[in-house]
Design brief:
Layout lengths: L3 H19 L7 E5 L5 H9 L4 E4 L2 H10 L5 E4 L8 H7 L2 E5 L2 H14 L4 E5 L16 H11 L4 E6 L12 H18 L5 E3 L6 H6 L4 E4 L1 H4 L10 E5 L2 E4 L12 E3 L3
Helix pairs in contact: 6-7
Length: about 260
């Protein structure tokens, strides 16, 4: 049977070893527990074990999961954000890792102005250049960062996020993580203020990301095991333009609701 506390202790040991290799203090690295397709009890398990950040890929999944979860964790959106879901995202999440354009930043700023929100964000950079991945080109990062700094007063820009291409050899991810750190360093110098957060590294490559400067590592499978399969069901009205779908996602068994939200 899976022992979450033991698993987490092992992961923290691996993070500490990676920090030691890089000459870093391990207190500068936090785990984002990615609960995608797991239920609220996964959030509770992580929270009780001392993990303070929950990462979700989809606004609609967090919309039902957060109210069913214990109060306390900080909720971070780590998946792609569509403009029509910005309003809901700002109501649900404490941090958005995946702002990938001036247009999206401007939309977040406009909704924040309407609602009084103070969004905290990272800019997502596609350091690999893969067409299948979201994120701006590396060369566009300085321009978008300057746009946010100069035209989005309600937004707090705090760093950058990337995802390396999948490889069974974690060392192959190193150039992409290093590129993000170097991008951050150059943007800091150009703008003249600190951008301390780097969200990079997942279950298969987080140690390399830590060696290259990650401050947040996004861990799902290595923490919770394989994800349950989604079991779609019939739509039910949830009011306020939302539709709830039976089946999938509530607990490790993969049963429970999902939600579609529209701005």
């Amino acid at each position: 049977m899976r022992d979450f506390a033991k698993t987490l202790e092992d992961i923290k040991g691996r993070i500490a070893a990676a920090c030691a290799r890089a000459g870093r203090d391990s207190s500068g690295v936090e785990i984002v527990a990615v609960t995608k397709t797991h239920g609220a009890e996964a959030v509770e398990e992580a929270w009780r074990a001392g993990i303070g950040i929950v990462g979700e890929n989809k606004v609609q999944e967090a919309a039902w999961k957060k109210p069913a979860s214990p109060a306390g964790p900080s909720w971070h959106l780590i998946g792609h954000l569509q403009s029509n879901k910005v309003r809901h995202a700002l109501a649900i999440f404490d941090f958005i890792h995946s702002v990938d354009s001036e247009k999206l930043a401007a939309r977040i700023e406009a909704v924040a102005e309407e609602t009084g929100a103070r969004p905290r964000i990272l800019l997502e950079v596609n350091t690999s250049g893969e067409k299948s991945k979201s994120g701006m080109r590396r060369e566009d990062a300085p321009r978008v960062a300057r746009f946010v700094a100069e035209h989005c007063p309600r937004i707090s820009l705090e760093g950058f996020m990337t995802m390396a291409p999948y490889s069974p050899d974690r060392e192959e991810a190193r150039p992409y993580f290093r590129a993000l750190r170097e991008t951050r360093d150059s943007v800091e110098q150009a703008l003249g203020f600190s951008l301390p957060r780097l969200s990079m590294g997942m279950s298969g490559d987080f140690e390399t990301a830590v060696e290259e400067g990650a401050t947040w590592v996004r861990l799902g499978t290595v923490l919770f095991g394989d994800r349950p399969k989604f079991k779609p069901g019939r739509a039910q009205s949830g009011g306020d333009g939302a539709e709830f779908f039976g089946g999938g996602l509530d607990s490790y068994s993969g049963e429970g609701p999902t939600v579609r939200v529209l701005d």
